[in-house]
Structure formats: structure tokens, C-alpha cells
Amino acid sequence: MLPSSIDYWPLGGGESEYIEYNTTHRIVPGKINVHLVPHSHDDVGWLKTVDQYYVGANNSIRGACVQNVLDSVISALLEDKNRKFIYVEIAFFQRWWRQQSKALKAKVKELVNSGQLEFINGGMSMHDEATPHYVDLIDQTTLGHQFIKNEFGQIPRVGWQIDPFGHSAVQAYLLGAELGFDSLFFARIDYQDRAKRLKEKTLEVVWQGSRSLSWSSQIFTGIFPRHYDPPDGFTFEINDASPPIQDDILLFDYNVQERVNDFVAAALAQANVTRTNHIMWCMGTDFRYQYANSWFRQMDKFIHYVNQAARQLEFFIGRNASGPNTDALADALAIVQHHDAVSGTEREHVAADYALRISIGYQECPLLNISYCPPSEAVLSDGKSLVVVAYNPLGWKREEVIRIPVSTDRVTVRDSSGRKVEAQLLPITNATLSIRNYYARAYLGKSPSETIKYWLAFSVSVPPIGFSSYIISTVKQTGPSSTISSIYTLEESADDTIEVGKGSLKLIFSAREGKLTHYANRKNLVTASVEQSYSYYTGSDGTDEDPQVASGAYIFRPNETFPIKSESQITRVFKEKDHAEVEFTIGPIPVDDDIGKEIATQITTAMKTNGTFYTDSNGRDFIKRLRDFRTDWELQVNQPIAGNYYPINLGIYVQDTSSELSVLVDRSVGGSSLNDGQIELMLHRRLLHDDKKGVGEVLNETVCLHDKCEGLTIQGKFYFRIDPLGEGAKWRRTTGQEIYSPLLLAFTEQDGNEWINSHVSTFSGIDPSYTLPNNVAVITLQELENGIVLLRLAHLYETGEDKDYSVLASVELKRLFPKKINKVREMSLSANQEKAEMEKRRLVWEVEGSGERSEVVRGGPVDPQTLVVELGPMEIRTFLIDFAFLRLFGS
Amino acid sequence: MLPSSIDYWPLGGGESEYIEYNTTHRIVPGKINVHLVPHSHDDVGWLKTVDQYYVGANNSIRGACVQNVLDSVISALLEDKNRKFIYVEIAFFQRWWRQQSKALKAKVKELVNSGQLEFINGGMSMHDEATPHYVDLIDQTTLGHQFIKNEFGQIPRVGWQIDPFGHSAVQAYLLGAELGFDSLFFARIDYQDRAKRLKEKTLEVVWQGSRSLSWSSQIFTGIFPRHYDPPDGFTFEINDASPPIQDDILLFDYNVQERVNDFVAAALAQANVTRTNHIMWCMGTDFRYQYANSWFRQMDKFIHYVNQAARQLEFFIGRNASGPNTDALADALAIVQHHDAVSGTEREHVAADYALRISIGYQECPLLNISYCPPSEAVLSDGKSLVVVAYNPLGWKREEVIRIPVSTDRVTVRDSSGRKVEAQLLPITNATLSIRNYYARAYLGKSPSETIKYWLAFSVSVPPIGFSSYIISTVKQTGPSSTISSIYTLEESADDTIEVGKGSLKLIFSAREGKLTHYANRKNLVTASVEQSYSYYTGSDGTDEDPQVASGAYIFRPNETFPIKSESQITRVFKEKDHAEVEFTIGPIPVDDDIGKEIATQITTAMKTNGTFYTDSNGRDFIKRLRDFRTDWELQVNQPIAGNYYPINLGIYVQDTSSELSVLVDRSVGGSSLNDGQIELMLHRRLLHDDKKGVGEVLNETVCLHDKCEGLTIQGKFYFRIDPLGEGAKWRRTTGQEIYSPLLLAFTEQDGNEWINSHVSTFSGIDPSYTLPNNVAVITLQELENGIVLLRLAHLYETGEDKDYSVLASVELKRLFPKKINKVREMSLSANQEKAEMEKRRLVWEVEGSGERSEVVRGGPVDPQTLVVELGPMEIRTFLIDFAFLRLFGS
């Protein structure tokens, strides 16, 4: 098995990444010392009443709940003894205090005694200074101070009048010095005064507020350089936009150095306007710390990282050593299954993130689909041989044509035993070269070599769950070493009728009409008139009266349909395959007319399909669809097109009394049968209005190079085939599984014959003399980290779907695995419990109106001696297999 | 002392109000059982990438941090074992788990084992159902389930596909039943289908998703009646607008019954569309529980209160018994000192709350200022006698005229020894009656009797820190029993010159010009030309280019000034007082022209004041102001009017070489001297634009009756006087203190002479033979709850302010308090530490450029034998006095 499936669960049992942050307090002489002052400025009534602020009522006016502040601050302080907080408004604190349990009160008293929680200012409110009478100031301060004294035995030492709109002399000398305060801090000051003080570094003064008492009632006064909030970029309330420190090296966007640099820059800026090396940052502002942890978590990190530069280096080294690697592919694929991802309703930058995650796991030839494959190009241009390893994850042998881009026509292909393999050179169209050139630069930042001319196509044969190797070499001869094939372009043809196909299937095109006209398969005797066309829908811009909105990420709401004369597509017919492969290239969709467009293709026959079609459910069951009809309720048809669209993951088919037309897709698309005999697929969408369902972004994907952007071009494939009625399922199931699990290619170079001689060049995971029944697929085969192998077998057919294959199937595990099997346990689908246990726990429902239970075909228990697994139609069975030989390597 | 100052600290040492909520789980058959399901739907990538969502980066796109969710949920679960939470997306949980300490991991494992934390669905993501291939669904689910199994040994039992945009058959039977799930829940469904199911109560179904496996792979499926969020009004994320349960009976807005009713109504509504009595509420939605406590706190309360109806009754009883009472006055006043309150930048509904808080402490005659006093009116109309108790909080004896409204002219006033007191009957103007009628109905909801005709004015004499009682009786005689005084109205006068004043001060008015013209005091030989006028400023609407904004709550930004011809005002001169009292009534300010206006008054003399004026700092020091000048920086004058306005709490004065003009105010106003010889006060403002500094509301106060609103009318007083140069301070200090501390009136009724004979009818807190020096005031005298008395003495004069009084003053505590003093401790200003201790701790600052220290006069230490307290100019000293007799009542 390939290494990529080993260590599948690196995170599950992985080592702890817990970081203990060092946040101990210390002063370093001669350096700038930044003192973080965590605080919440809780107005005792402003936009809401004092009680509304306390309990968090009337939040439509302002989201603020002081109870949250105090609850969460106390909790955060109790978690880490290095954390500190100041609290100011006793009117709020007293409300909170009254509601606490004795046990919590005792803990809070310890926080106050240890200095973690300090009362500052300490009046009931942070009184105004312009308008109250001094006796009222004294009274309200006394009330608060008495509470602090009575409950905590503490005496506030700092005046903290950060928000009042101006400052009175009485505040400084009477409500400051005479309270025993050492210092007074505030933020608001005349803008002209502040400008002068910033310039002259006189933000810190000793204030003598009284002519009569002069120096005997003076107080150190600190004016904040700006407001009483943190420097820009250091606010960490829930929902604040400052970048958090991301120091988990296993996540993306690690930014410790960047944030440390930001911190240092902000500290230097402040040190430039203050007199000493000690500067204060007010870490908080109005009604902040509603969830205190959001602040303390970040401050912990800043203290930790700013104090220890060496450690940062370790981290950077660590990141390189243990950063994202290919083992993360499984995780990436799991994340991408999220419903906002596969459905396309994620934002574009999130889509880019998904793509990045996937690319990390599959780096070899990221843009092979558009003919860009650096390893193959580099090796061959140096005159060396290229080894191509083709891996087949399916449980049956496959013969397929693979293609790689080459720059020369002088290449030969040999299999691992040295036999020459027939190969073809297919000219690469200018359209493809143009995409290759643009997209490689846009997405990889690399200019691809200009010399690629051909697709080298050759047939490979790969054993089940195994791989084969092929060697591609340049030859020193004049003229091409392989057949150069033609591409028929309808415009260039001399005849009106063009017949394509060297095997039993022929497609007939009309050059004059520029389209497919007939389909004929001499093997199953199907002939039919078939047309394939393209059209586009204009997307609704949502400006009309209807409660529905614009066509967008969530909504398909077409206005009108227009035919498209031609699209860039290549139709291929392979000798051994009785289906047509259509490779389409669509884009950029023009939107110069400010109208969004959605591109669809139609395959049209004369079949009388009676409004009925079938679409797959997650690539598994096919569900019958009736146009303009729902089983569960009487449908009111408001959207005759969109209301009949269904998701297509595997395929879609229609049938009449004699034949069935099937289409398979290489990706999830929308599809329908809007007219009898016709199948339609939606292939590409470019829209100019947000549909207001939440993504808040227009579905207008662009690709940019040097700040110039153009609409996204996409390339993909679908496949179609016509079978006699009742015979289409075989193709849909087998080919569908192959499309979902294409051969995986890996590349390496070799000098001479070294590689091929020193490596296993062909291998199958199963007994070469055994083959799985045609109606069964191995859908999972993975070695878990404990050496146990996870096997999932799936019956591919539904009851009644195929006369030969919709029957009980048997798999012989002893032949599937030539190694000695020690033990087999049947598990639930996700392998987290034994199946028998699961069945025991299953709730039995009495279902109203369900009548008698029909017969269900399921496989029986697995005999531990014979180890034969039976599977009924659509059954999937999951096993953990313990191989005896693996034990030898254990203790 | 009056009872209102006893129990001053009811909250400080009050009993605990901690409520232990009963949230134990129970099922009650036959009732509706509401199952709260706390959850957070955490999209694994949508508007942000998965890592950005996890660490809370890129919050400008969407405030969401899953780390917060998990941190705070775990913390909340650990706090209370009855709390539960489900978690779904293992991609996030795994990131979080990796970063936790071993200790916390152990605790979380316990939470999972006990069922407090349950993994639901349990794939890496909540996969889409429309577009992925079934093998990918199995793989991503397996990855998550393996993690849960490996780390916690747990097996998810519930499918939870609440957000995907549609649902596939494969999900139901394969990713549901075959995983061993008992049930599957989701929210999204075609709107037509949902409507039918709501109607037919078929939201709950047993789904057989597979034709082939039919009943052997069925699953119970619950479709939510609406979305996956809680019923309206039950969302409790930080900043959510749902009303929290307010169950603290000491706060306002207690709403337990109301919220319980809401809960029951929402439960009934849901029970109407579900099949059984068991209904589920999804308590959460996208990225919620960023601070889990905000949810659990409310859910705890709902569980507690909805389950125990009897307890609610207790609470309502409790509220009546221990609800807000008059003891809360001190708290209310403290809260009102908050800088957004006194400065007027609070919102109007907050101002109403402040007013309510204050009114609770002072209920007797809330609208006495506009002649509405129900106790006096009721008693006298019944023919009984009314006892008026006048309390003097100052340390000196006061002789003042008090006024109460009466409906008859046949009343007499006697003092407590039965001596008749001279009284006057002053006609109540129609303007006052109109305000009285409107405001009593608007603010109290009461229609006042229509019979009030006069102010009964009489002189009272009240001892220092004490009270006197007066008895008002109706007499059975014809014709008035007291002198009915005239009110001069300038329009009615026959002569041009009107002289007002029966004492030494005379004011001369010109009836022709309609204004004051001269001021003459024969006692201090001051005569002067004086005019008093009104004007209004038009407020800037902020639409010009200037960075400054509209005139509003924070900003005074006048455009133009216009004179006002007449205002409703009464000017009074009392025989014993050498000052003029101006009572003004202003409003509603007309704004029909859509222009906000600000009303000011000017007192204008010919004094040459050289751009200089003096304003008080918090009613204490007077600060010298120079027009268009700042001491600390070179002022650039951008706002020639607003830039020269200062807060006036006590008063403002100007002086020239021979005299000084002083104005005292009864409330905080803005004031200035914009022209030499002139003093200006801003009295009322009504503006139509928000100044965008935060309050988000227009300063346009209105008073509404039956949904009809008119602009606020205000009534107030200011006082002015002219003294020879150097002699104004005495008046400003003494009268200023009296204005700040007016006599407090309380009322009771008596039949015959009962009350006066059975009560102490006159009392002084100090030795009647002792009087405080004229330059000292008792600013605080309060009995603390431990029986200790808090005393504050304030020297009222600044150094050099008055030739007689700006000297060291002495207070003999033994004579001030006739009781035996056990111990006197001098304290810091807020009495939370001994003064000597405070001085020891005081930091000593070396002040740059401060030169030699000038002499400061302060009182020396208090000799414990003589107990004489000395006070230097502006000194305030605070003492705790322990009286011997109080000890006798102790243990």
C-alpha cells in the first residue's frame, strides 16, 4: 500500500501541543518596560441604565453586561496567578458581590489580597469632574471606599478618571492626594494641550491642584497619549478584529514573529512621547472583558513571546520540521466535506484555503489537468528517463489511457518488464497552452517552459489495489517515435459527416451544423439521434418584487435562456471504452453587459421519458425524480427550472421503453431533465449579485496575474452512453467508481535502469489469482496506526437495478489478502464499535402505517473459519482485520 | 439626626443574595417537557477559513472564535454538573484538544463520561448532503469517530445535520442508521414541505432512506419547526438582545414571572406542531457560546423558575418586603455622580432612571418646586393641622423663608412653642399652575387638586445640624389671616420705575424698558447700573465642512446669538438677605423652525474686568479664567463662545478695581464672561441633532401626556450680588453652602396638639451654646452601622480669599458634641485608613523646576485631651468618632 495511507490518525493520538506560557512579572532596567493594565470601563449608566448594564438587558441599544465582565474576569484570574485586573466602579462590583456564593467570595478575597484583583479609584462610579459639588464627590467615593475596606480591608491607591470630559483642580488635590492616592490617570484633555504635551514629553506631571495647600496636596498625574484603549491592533474582545497570536505550528497563519514585531513597534511609538522607559498600556475600554479569557489568552502570549526571543527561533525551526505535510491529506479532505465547502457557498478566500489544504497532500503534478507537470518536463528535457507509477485504489484490474505533457515527439514508453508500450502523441491545443501558461503563473508563481507540445498518451494496466510502473525515455532518432494523432476540429473538416471512434462505439458529427448528430454502438446495437448543445441562463439580479433574491452562491434563479453557438470542448472515444468522454473548457464567462451568466450543456435525444429522470444520492443510490412533482406534498411550481434541478455527484439518467441515456460526471454539478429525452448539466456560473443568504460575497471567481484579473476558466469532463433498457447500471456503477477513484500518478527519475531494478515495480495488494465480484468494491483499505487494517466492502447495486448483479455477493477475505489473518471484527460504518454491539443498542421503532416488513437481503455473519463476507444489494460492511504477521513486529 | 442617614451602608455588609439554582434533570409525564439542547454550530470554513474560525482571526469578516466556545463551554460545564452541551465538529475539537494541558484533558474526559459533554454527529465536519460522494462522507465521519473513540471511548448516537441545504437518502440510511445512530435531526427543508408538516404534525418521522435495505436501515428523524436557533427572545450570546431573567430583587426591572410566561408561551407554541409532549429547543446557533456562561446563566434560571411555581410567589412577596426603599438614597446619589449623569450626556431614558432612584429616597414632596405637595394639600383641606419639620444639615443656625402651596387664605403658622409666626401669602402665577397641572400628571400620573392659590411663605429658624417644627392650621375667620403680598409685573406698573426690596438692598426696574436697571445696597454702599437679559444661540446642525459636529449632548457649538424680549422670571429680594434671587421658568423652547436653541441669561455691568473671571472647581476652589487664553499652551481660538465656557457648580464672579459681581447657581450650568463686566449662564438647551460623540440620541427632552409631547420646561434659581472689592467671598461661601444644602422639609399631620406634645419638636445636634467658626462647615456627619460617627469639617476659604476668614480656624469637638467622646481617629478623606498611615505611605515626588516650597497652613494633630481641630484654608479633615454612650448599647 502507498505510504500516504499510513499514520492516518496523526492527530487522534498525537503528542500534546499544550504550551505553558511564562507570564511572570519582571522589570528589566535600561529596556522599555511595557505594563499591561487590563481594565474595563463600565459606565454606571449611559446609553442604558445601571441595572440594564449590569444584567445585560436592553442589549439592542448596546451589547454590555457587567455581570459577564466580573464573572469571566474572576474566572480568568483564578486560572493563572500571574494575571491581573483592575476594577473601578464599585456600584457594579457591589451588585455582583451580593450575588456570589460564600465559597467564591473567599476566592475573590484571596485575589484581592494577592494583588491580582486591584480596586482603583474605588468610588461607586467614576464621577464627573465638571459639574458635581465636592461634597457629593467625597460622599460617593467614601461609599465605595468603605465597601472595599469593609469587605476586603483594602485601600485604593490610584486615581483613575479616564473618561470624564475634563478635569478639575479639586479632583487632583482633594479626591486624589487627600484620599492617599499616589497617582491619577486620565485620557481626555484639550486636543491642543495634548499635542503640545506629546511634543514636549510632558504627559506625566506632578499636579498641585490647590493654591492654598500647594505642594502638600500634590499628585503624580499621567495623561494617556491617546485614549484609554490599547494601541491599534491589540484589542481582544470577542469579535474584535485584532489579529490574535497564532502560535500553534500545526495550524495555518502562524504569526508569532509578526505580532511580536507589532508589539515592539507600538511600544517604541509610545516610548517616544513618554519620559521614562516605563510605559502603560490600557488593555481594555468601555464594557470590555465580557469574556475575559479572550483578552488574557492573548496577553499571556504577548508576555511569553516578547520576553523570550530565543524561544521564538525554536518555534520557527519547529515549524519547518513538523509543519504541514502530506499526512494531512485525510484531514484536509474531511474538512472539505463541510457543507459550505462542497456546495460552493463558502467565500472565495476560503475556497482558496481548501485548495491549499488539498494540494499539500498531493503535490506531484498539481496542474496536470492543464498539461503542467514539472517533474515529467524536467526529467525528459535532461535526457533522463522518467518513471511513472500508476496506483489503482480499486479492487479490480484496470486498463486505462493516461496522459502526460511532453516537449518532444522522440519518446518511447516501456513497461516495467521492458516491453514497449504503444503510445500516441496528441497535439496540445492553443487554448490549453494558454490556460497552462496563465494558471501556472497565477497559482504557482512559476512560468512554465514554453516547449510543451504534446500529450503523451499510453495505455496502462494496473492490478487491483496495486500499482504498475512505466518508463518513458527520449530516443535519439529523427522523426516521431510514437503515432501523432489528429484532433478533428469541426471547422477544418472537408466532409460534412465526421465519424469518430475506432472501437465499437461511433459518434457521428455534422461539420456543417457544427455538432454531434448520431450515436451508434455496434456491440449492444444501440443507435440513436443525439445532439449536444450549450446554453446560458441570465442570472436574476434580485431587484424585482419577488421575495426570492438574486442568483448567487446559494440560489439558482435564472431569468432567460440563450443558446451558445460553440464551446471549447474535446470529445474523445477510446477503443476499449463504449462511452463518449467530453472534456469542456469554459471561461472566462463574459460579463461586460453587467449580467451574470450560468453555463449549461444539454444532451438531447428523441426518447419519450415522461418527465421522469434519476439522479444519484451521494454517488450511491439513484433516486427517481418527476418533473414538477414532489412525493411528500402538492408542489406549487414557482421556479420551473431551478425547482427541477438536483445535485449530481455520480450521474443522471433517463429511460424510455427501449433504452436509457446515462451521464456520469467528474465533479458535483447541478442537473436536471427539463424536457423529455434530454439531460442538462450546469457546468459553470459567474454572477454579479450576492443572494443575501449569508456569504456576503458575489459568486464572481477571478484569476489574477499582476493585479489584472479575469473570470475563472474551468476544465472538466463528463461521460455519456446509451444502453438498452435495463443494461445501463453496469456502466454507471463500474465506470462511476473509476471516475471517482482515478489512477493516481507519481513520478520519479532514473539514470539507466537503476530505479526499475532496485524497486518493486508492480504490486497488487490482493492475491493475483483472485478477483472481486463485479458487484463489489473495496471502498476503504487503510492501515491504522496500531497496525490494524480497516476494510470496507460495498455492494454497488441496488435491489432490482441489474438482473445479474443485484444479488447477494461473496468476498473471500483469505484470497483477498494473501497474508495470514489473525482476527476479523465486523464494525459499525465508522468503525468505532463492533457491529453486534451497535445492533444490540439500536432502538426499535414502531412505525405508524408501515405495514408488513418486506424481505431485505443482507449478508450473514462472517464465519471465522472461512472468512467469507456476503453483501446484499447496497450493503456496506466494515471490518478491522488483525494480520498475524504484524504481531511479529510487536512485543 | 434624621433616620435617612442611618444604615448608610446597607449593601456593604448586607446578607448574601446568592441563589443556588435547582437545575436537576427530571421528566414529568403528562406535562410538556422542554429539553434544552445547548449547542454551537461551528462551520468548518465558510466566511473565514477553518483556522481563522478556530483562533478568532479575521474577525472583521465575522466575529467568531471556536477556541472561545470550547474554552468557555468546558469552564461552564465544570462549574455545574447539571449543565450539558453537545459538540459536533471534531475538526475544531481536535485543534482545541491538542492545546490543552493533561490536567484539563482529564477533567474533560470526566465531562464526557458523565454525559455533560456529548459528541453528536461526530464527523470532522457537518458534511454537506447534496454534493459529496458517499465514500468521502464515510471517510470524514470515520476520522472524527475514531478520534472520539480513541480519546474518550465514546460512540456518537445522534445525527445532527442541522445546516446542510438539503438532505440525501444516503445520509439517512448510511451515515445514520449504519453508524448506529438512533436519530437524525435537521432544520432545512423545502418551505412548502415544512408548511405541510407543521400543519399535519409530521415533523417527526421514521425515515427509510434505502429501497434496498428499507426498514433494516431506518432512522427516527426530527425536523425542527423552524431554524436551529432558540425561540425568539431566548438567545443569550453576549450582546444578544433577549431580555435576561432579572431575579435580583434589589435591582430594578425584576422580570421572573414575565420571562417564565414567555417561556411557557413559546413551549406551548411548539407543542402545537409536534406529536408528543417532549419538545426540543436548540439553545444556540452559528458560532455561539463564545462566552458560554452568558447562556448557561440564563438557562439555569429558566430551569429553576419554570420548575418551581411556588418559589416564584415567594419572590414576589420578597420583592415587596425588601424592595427598593429610602435607604437607597445614598446609593442613588453615588450613581448619579457618574460622569455621564451629571454632565447630561446620558440618554434620556437613563436620566429618567436616575430621577427615579433619587425620588425613591425623597418622596415627601417631589414636585414642591412647582407648587405640588400632596401631604400639605390633603391635610389642610381636611381642616387638620400640618406639622412641617425643617432640617438644617449645616453647622450654623439658619433663618430662612420657606414656601408651601396652600388652597386657602385662612391659615396661620405657629412655632413649636405656640408663638404665631409672621407669614405671607404669595399668589401662584398662572404659569406655575399650568406647569404644576401638566407635570404632576405627566410624571406622577396624578391630577392635582385645582384649588391651590397661594404660596404660604414664612420665616423659619433652625439650629445647626438640627430641626425645628412649625404648625400650620386653618382658622375659622373671614378674610385672609396673613398678609397677601403683591407680585410686581412690569407690564402692569403705572410708574416707569419700580423699586423692589424692603431691606438694605433695592433693585430698580424700568417698566418702560421692561428690565432691571439699577442695584443699590445702602449697607455696603454699593450702587451700580445693572441689566439682566436673555438670549438664545442657534445650535449648529453639524452639516458644514468643519470636523466639529452639531451642538448636542457633548458639544456646545453655537452658530448665532439672538436676544429674547421677555422670559418668565420672578426676581425676589428678601428683607434679611442682601442678594437678589431670580427664579426662572424656561420652556418649551420652540423648534418649529427646525433649529435647536440654547437659552442663556446675562447680567451686565459697566465694570472693567479685563477679560478675567473666576469659576468654581466642584464648588470648592475658585479658578481664575482669562478669556481666549490658556496657561499651559498657546490657544488657537476656534470656538470664541464655547471655548470660553466653564462649568459652574457654585458660582462665578468678576471684579474690577472697586467692586465684584458674584452669581451663585442652584444647579450645575455652563457659564462665562464673554464681555467685560458681564456674566453669562446657560440655562436650558433643546437641540435637534446628535453630536455623534456616542450617546446616539438628540438632546431634545420632552414631557408627554396622553402620547402628546412638548419640550421640557425647567424652573430654577440663581442669585447675584455686588460687593466692594475683596468682600464678596463671605457671601459666596456662606450662601453657596446654604444653596447646596437647603433646608429639608418633612410633613406630617396632627389632630389638636398631639404631635407637638409627644415629639421632640426642635433639636440641635451640637451644644446650643456653641457655634462653629464662620469659615468652617460640617460637610459630613453620619452614624455608620457600627455606631461610629463619621465627621468631616471643611475650611471654606482659600488662602488670601478673605482678610478675616482665610486664617487657621479651630473647632472644639467637645462643644460640638455634648456627648462624651471616647475616641477620635483622624482618617483619610474617604475614611478608609488612618491619616497617619496614609501619610507614611505617601510617595514623595521630586518635582522638576518646583523651586522652594512655599508655606502651607494646615491644622496640627488633634490633642486627645482638648480635642480641638484646627483647619487651614481649604483644608478638609475627616474623623471617626467613637462616643462613649454608644458603647453602653454594645456587648
From TrEMBL, chains A, B:
Residue ranges annotated for the Glycoside hydrolase family 38 central domain, each copy included: 292-358
EC number: 3.2.1.24
UniProt-listed CDD domains: GH38N_AMII_LAM_like (cd10810)
InterPro entries associated with the record: Gal_mutarotase_sf_dom, GH38_C, Glyco_hydro/deAcase_b/a-brl, Glyco_hydro_38_C, Glyco_hydro_38_cen, Glyco_hydro_38_cen_sf, Glyco_hydro_38_N, Glyco_hydro_38_N_sf
Secretion signal span: none
Reactions that this protein is recorded to catalyse: Hydrolysis of terminal, non-reducing alpha-D-mannose residues in alpha-D-mannosides
Enzyme kind, highest EC tier: hydrolase
GO MF, one annotated term: metal ion binding
Cofactor(s) the protein requires to work: Zn(2+)
Keywords: Disulfide bond, Glycoprotein, Glycosidase, Hydrolase, Metal-binding, Signal, Zinc
GO terms classed as biological process: mannose metabolic process
Record family assignment: Belongs to the glycosyl hydrolase 38 family.
This protein's name: alpha-mannosidase
Organism: Morus notabilis
